[in-house]
Each structure stands twice: as C-alpha cells, then as structure tokens.
Design brief:
This protein is of the alpha+beta class. The chain has one domain. Helices cover about 20% and strands about 35% of the residues. The protein contains two helices and six strands, in the order H-H-E-E-E-E-E-E. The strands form two sheets. The chain has a three-stranded antiparallel beta sheet, with no helix packed on it. It has a three-stranded antiparallel beta sheet with strand order 2-5-4, with no helix packed on it. The protein is elongated.
Length: about 120
C-alpha cells in the first residue's frame, strides 16, 4: 500500500485474513511485492442523516468481489458471506455514521490471490 498502510487499515477495516493473503502474495512473488490491481469504491451514505427520518429505513449493501481469487475489504457491522464472492450487510433504521469505502484487490495473473476474512 506504498506508505499508506495505516490509512488503508483504518479506512477499509483490513482484517487478519485479508492482510495475511496480501503478505502471502508478496512472499510468493520474487520482487517481494504482491501483484494485485487495486480498485477503490466509495459510497456516500452520510447524507442519509439529512433525510426526513434521519435514518435509512431498510438498508442493504451487497458487495460482489467478482472472482474467488479477488480480495475485498470494507467496514461494516454484521457483514455476512452469502455466496462464493458475495457479501451482504443489512440493517433496519440504519443511521450511517460514516461513508462506506471498499477496497478490491484483483490478482494480476491467475496464479496469485486467495480467500480471506471479508475477502473470502
């Protein structure tokens, strides 16, 4: 994460499984760096506090990481894995205290990657 590790860990709630998969990919690569393409997705939710009720009545977030080899990490309460690549977070009368930032890592070739934490 090129000098921004602490920021990434906080912003994307990287768990041990996610971090271990990235470390393994780095160790398995001769140059010592994990070979992933990085995508970052930001969802603005905090404007929901400006709605008439102040909350989102029935909130549902579904994140699909695309391939089982991809890694995904994001902050959320009660996130459940509902499919091989799909994660879901639901809430009633949800009042977002922060926006949602999603980190997706896709192996640059077919030999790296893994399954972990929110990533797997």
């Amino acid at each position: 994460f090129q000098g921004q590790y602490a920021t990434y860990k906080t912003r994307y709630c990287m768990d041990d499984g996610f971090e271990n998969a990235v470390r393994k990919a780095a160790k398995d690569n001769p140059d010592g760096y994990p070979q992933y393409f990085e995508s970052r997705i930001a969802y603005i939710l905090t404007t929901g506090g400006n709605w008439a009720s102040g909350s989102i009545g029935d909130f549902k977030l579904t994140v699909d990481k695309g391939s089982p080899k991809n890694l995904v990490s994001f902050c959320g309460d009660n996130v459940r894995k509902v499919g091989p690549t799909t994660f879901e977070m639901t809430a009633k009368d949800f009042y977002p205290e922060h926006d949602i930032d999603i980190l997706l890592l896709e192996p640059s070739d077919d030999t790296s990657g893994g399954d972990s934490g929110n990533g797997g």
